[in-house]
Batch of 3 targets.
Target 1
Amino acid sequence: MTERKLRAARLSFGHGTANARDEAAWLLAHALRLSHEELSRSADRELTRHEERRVLRLSEERVRTRKPLAYLIHEAWLGDHRFYVDERVLVPRSFIAELLRERLHPWVKRPVHRALDLCTGSGCLAILVALAFPRARVDATDISRGALAVARKNVGAYRLGRRISLERADLFPAARRQYDLVVANPPYVGAAALRKLPPEYRREPRTALAGGRDGLAFVRRILDQAAAFLHPGGWLVVEAGHNRRRVEQAFPRLPFIWAETSAGDDCVFLLRREDLYNRRS
């Protein structure tokens, strides 16, 4: 019934689920306080009246407000990792998270002692970097005070306060410290695409989505400044949406490595510090 209601409402998905069926399962699991595995084993279970009311309230609120479910239940997942979210941050969905499962193999071979996460939002990538490289100290920046408050909550939940430092900054931190690894999932939605976003995406912070006229305003700034913040042999990892063609046209001299992710090979690029000196002037 919940699945049919969500499908009939012609909602847009993409904030942790790809379709009405998966979203209904997520909603039910939360409302019934079950894991997804427990829910699958309880398919024939009858709901109590209290549970029915909870499911109905959530599904009606999802349809009425067109808010992503993650905002309604203050919960988002990247792989096996749960994060608190609210409307001060994007709902986590970075493809860089997939690469961190393998610790950025085969590219990053040296130990990562210091890492930097730009546009950290909820802090999800900073946390995943810290978990992937347990000896690393991670700095994370965001221009939004609200986003940093959410990130602080998540860092505390993972008990990583001693290893992750949060700083308000417009991209790079004030101190010119050098890092073994810099990751970034910056705003990359172009102006025309931004105007056409469905209501669910317009519920997210506009400043966390808007990447300028062609979606590359922040990518350009990162490429212009990143070399100064990387150790020799250090790596830059950037998510740029499905903007591979635009990125390569804008920086034809840079030897981008495009990683294969579940979304294809046009979303996340890697560059070594030494390669960044070939950037277009």
Target 2
Amino acid sequence: MAVFVWTVKGLGWSPSDFRIVHTHQNEPIYLAFSSTPEGVKYAKLFDDGVKKLRTSGVFGKLLKSYGMSDWK
């Protein structure tokens, strides 16, 4: 939770703009963006960022550090 709050504040947003939903380990996590132009922009930034992390190998290293493997 602390990392989330720090990241959100660092982006100039407010944690109160988000709804935190608990999930148990090994359950899928879904990330949703609004259908507004701004939401579409952020969804694309997220998708492009994950693709770049996968291509560079950083994503796999990050997942491995948490004992996880890529689902794709």
Target 3
Amino acid sequence: MKNSPGLLPSALRVFDFSFGQMLWSRRSVFLGLLVGAPVVIAVIVRMVAMTAGLPVINGAGLNGPTVFGLLIWVLFVRFVVPVLGVYYGTSLIADEVDDKTITYLFTRPVPRASILIGKFLAYLACVLLLVLPAVVVVYFLIVPIGGNIGQSFPQLAADLGMLVAGLTTYGALFAFVGAALKRPLIVGLVFAFGWESTVLVVPGYLKRLSVAYYLQALVPHSMPADSSISSLLSLFQETPPIWVSLAGLTAITVLGLWLGGRAVEKREYVLEQ
């Protein structure tokens, strides 16, 4: 009897036909609008800086690198990355169930878990192709305002690596949620913007049960100590060592994909009429 393909070759086959579908789907319109918003904000900031200059807060003037760091913190780390992880990750299997196409995927001679992994790789390629160039555009619009592009470039490289880690981890976690639960989008939103926002400001060990706790240690920017921005972000200053963050994000990613693959293998998906 002919052996079925292995997990990785099967996942690559699923990635091959899923990537094009995902890139040109209606979800990509939402993705484009989401990553385009920081670019529009950067253009506005650049125009304001050219005409009136950046504001002074508590006697300390803002500059391009500081504003760029704030955009990374507030827009990308705390909003864009978790939103994309929830929106895409929970839909990898759930959309197939809603569209009643999951049975066609299961009839293919591949391991069921490879369907989740292949679609996860397609998600990751799709979001990285749009998010990372948007960050680079924001960087070149903002950082030259009172800053030095050459000196700040290592921070940009660190930012890009951090965003890759965040999109990977959130995507893997919510891929499991989407494969295991019937209403995964609601659960994902509650976790990303309810649970994580709460435990990060609560003393104790609960914050270690969030992705944001490990991700924020990889952000290379520090906010100016004399500004009100510093007071706002002081709630999120408790961060683990970088090696602990990398180990934590890796563990969540691997566990999420493994549990998601197990859920796809074991769960009986009942299609609603």
